[in-house]
Specification:
With 667 residues, the chain is of the alpha/beta class. It is built from 20 helices and 31 strands. The strands form 8 sheets. A 6-stranded mixed sheet has the order 3-2-1-4-9-10, sandwiched between helices. Strands 11, 12, 13, 16, 23 and 24 form a 6-stranded mixed sheet that branches. A hairpin with a 5-residue loop joins strand 26 and strand 27 (598-600).
Length: 667
């Protein structure tokens, strides 16, 4: 039998991984390349070309390409994304206060239109006057639109009309809430739609970069993207619904972890540059979050693995609190460009400044810190305020030291806003730098890392002593902080899974005693009931100590550094569709979902129609998502209590799920 090679790619915040996989041989070759945020194709081509060279396989032998990514997750955790316009149909300003919608909206514009539907799908007339007045100007200051209508999951007609009008005037991408979720809960559906709209340009760039690279390389194979529940969808669908790719990387790594370790039960912790993602494998499957994925503090309506994402990774920002008698270190949640990495690409621009700062007699408050543009396209920097624009103009694509950039205290807040918009990277001391000095990592510039640590130990604690005796001691303290914080976030995730989410390991004195093994008459202990599966390139460096702290067996598979890319190619395609039936009055059955609203007069006929609609819609979506020969399963949920001896139908839900392996190219 001729080998079918599958190419898995994972674009993370720091690295892009590629793996060439064969269903009989397993991993044939793997490689990493730095993620190049200004042009994602550079990182992708670097990793893929290295893999093809290593394996010595012709491009014509590749029959499927699958991509997983943490870009959408990282963007939401770091509060980044394009500026989106939100259109609410049938809602009022008071609805913004629910589900954190006003917080998520920030300063982005919102328009309220009269309209919407009721629970049975009947309409309140739609009035688009406010939209018509605002559109011409608004189109110039946003990069996409989100449209959410009252009860649009029962009848999406108004969302569709508004979307068409926005398209005609602005030609910008528009996301409608009914395309993302069939669940009720308008404000949370609006929130999910808004976040989706913000991510559209970013995922569009990623998928586009990958597609261009495949065409250039002569790889003629279907392209898939991993969804947040671990299932695969066609790249064309991911561009429309990028929110479904939140937790894509972590979900892929869970599928990969199961494949690599063969373990049915485990706590999977995946450490990247920006985040640590923790999830539970139960009986060979990732646990899914019934309520919807929580990312960056917002609960969305996206069905995804019950993954908890924390802003803690190898490139996390280091905060030093020097006010106490002993200095305290804390990491995250922001990612910085490590000094060692910045010096590996920008050499003297970093090293000469660090040398200058080290020679100074006094310590500067911005020592060891730099800023540089991320290199995103100019139109994404639209709508900056005057001070923001002035500061942005002074920052170039090579690093500038903060002590030269910032001339007043207020500019620090302005700079933070540019970082939050994803326009500027901050560069500074991180755990990755500490590991370069301790010899645990060696891929970047260790001299810059050492200089950064030498600058840091000039700080004094509350008792007037230097915060560490040597760069090595400081590096060990940073790694110890990462170990301890990692143990805390893993415990927090597992306690929440156990239903004890009100215990905060970072604040609990008992857990502190358990983790530190503090001797006492009462012995406190905390541990895991299953193996800790450590994933990520730096897992072998950090995770044995973390597992030990948690009294757990440590399982770090050989290919743990590319688990995501492996998970990207061994997954299944899955699609669900829900059809609802309600009974507004005796003997009248309204069917919503899977097409136009229908009104029938017989329960048996309406149930049969709903089953058929749900099945056909799930199969059609699974084929759109790239499934080869999907198989359907159907779940029926019927709420029909007896009232005075009479059965009264309140609502019936028919949920069809179609799944299958992705279509592959037969060359």
């Amino acid at each position: 039998m001729k080998s079918q090679y599958l190419l898995g790619i994972d674009t993370g915040g720091t690295y892009t991984d590629a793996v060439l996989f064969d269903e009989t041989q397993g991993v044939v070759a793997k490689a990493k390349s730095l993620t190049t945020r200004h042009d994602l194709a550079v990182g992708i081509s670097g990793a893929v070309e290295a893999v093809l060279q290593q394996a010595d396989v012709p491009v014509s032998a590749i029959s499927l390409v699958s991509l997983s990514t943490t870009l959408a997750t990282n963007a939401l955790v770091e509060g980044q994304g394009g500026r989106a316009g939100l259109v609410m149909i049938g809602f009022g300003p008071e609805d913004l206060k629910r589900d954190g919608l006003d917080q998520a909206l920030g300063s982005d514009p919102v328009i309220f239109l009269p309209g919407g539907h009721n629970v049975h799908g009947h309409e309140t007339p739609l009035d688009m006057t406010a939209l018509e007045e605002a559109l011409p100007e608004l189109s110039k200051t946003v990069s996409s639109f989100a449209v959410a209508g009252y009860f649009a999951v029962r009848n999406p007609a108004h969302e569709i009309r508004v979307r068409q009008r926005i398209h005609d005037v602005s030609h910008l991408p528009v996301t409608c809430s009914h395309e993302l979720s069939s669940k009720l809960g308008g404000p949370r559906r609006a929130l999910t739609t808004l976040l989706n709209a913000r991510l559209v340009s970013m995922i569009d760039r990623l998928v586009g970069a990958c597609e261009e690279f495949l065409v250039r390389s002569g790889i003629d194979a279907p392209m898939m993207v991993v969804r947040g529940d671990g299932a695969l969808i066609a790249a064309s669908e991911a561009k429309i619904r990028p929110i479904e790719t939140i937790l894509s990387g972590p979900a892929a790594s869970l599928v990969g972890a199961r494949y690599l370790t063969g373990l049915d039960n485990g706590v999977v912790s995946d450490i990247g540059g920006t985040t640590t993602d923790v999830a539970v494998l139960d009986g060979g499957r990732p646990r899914l979050d019934a309520e919807g994925a929580v990312v960056g503090g917002y609960r969305t309506m996206v069905e995804a693995v019950a993954m908890r994402t924390y802003g803690l990774g190898g490139d996390s920002e280091l905060h030093i609190n020097d006010r106490g008698l002993v200095a305290k270190l804390h990491l995250g949640p922001r990612r910085l460009l490590p000094l060692s990495l910045a010096a590996a690409t920008h050499g003297d621009a970093i090293l000469s400044v660090l040398e200058r700062q080290k020679r100074a007699t006094h310590m500067g408050r911005h020592d060891g810190r730099f800023a540089m543009r991320t290199g995103v396209p100019d139109h994404l920097a639209a709508g900056l305020q005057t001070q923001e624009q002035a500061l942005f103009d002074r920052i170039g694509t090579s690093p500038i030291a903060l002590d030269q950039l910032l001339t007043s205290t207020s500019q620090k807040a302005t700079l933070d806003r540019l970082v939050a918009r994803g326009l500027v990277h901050l560069c500074g001391l991180t755990p990755s730098d500490a590991m370069h000095v301790l010899g645990g990592q060696g891929q970047w510039n260790a001299d810059a890392a050492r200089l950064g640590l030498e600058l840091a130990i000039r700080m004094k604690d509350g008792s007037g002593r230097p915060i560490a005796a040597s760069p090595e001691d400081m590096a060990k303290n940073i790694v110890a902080a990462l170990t301890r914080q990692s143990a805390e976030v893993i415990l927090a995730a597992c306690l929440a899974e156990d239903g004890a989410g009100d215990i905060d390991p970072a604040r609990s004195q008992q857990i502190d005693r358990a983790l530190r093994r503090t001797p006492g008459i009462v012995r406190f202990a905390a541990g895991l009931d299953r193996a800790l599966i450590g994933l990520g390139a730096s897992a072998p460096v950090y995770y044995p100590a973390i597992a030990e702290m948690l009294s757990a067996e440590s399982a770090i598979p050989g290919d743990s550094d590319v688990a995501n890319a492996i998970g990207a190619v061994v997954g299944q395609v899955k699609a669900s569709a829900t059809v609802f039936i309600t009974m507004p009055e005796e003997g009248i059955f309204i069917i919503n979902g899977g097409g136009d609203s229908l009104r029938l007069f017989n329960e048996g006929d309406s149930f049969a129609t709903a089953r058929q609609r749900a099945t056909e819609a799930a199969l059609a979506q699974a084929r759109l998502n790239g499934a080869d020969e999907p198989v359907v399963s159907l779940v029926e949920e019927i709420d029909a209590p007896e009232v005075e001896g009479q059965r009264k139908l309140i609502e019936a839900r028919f949920i069809a799920t179609a799944s299958g392996r992705p279509r592959i190219a037969h060359h």
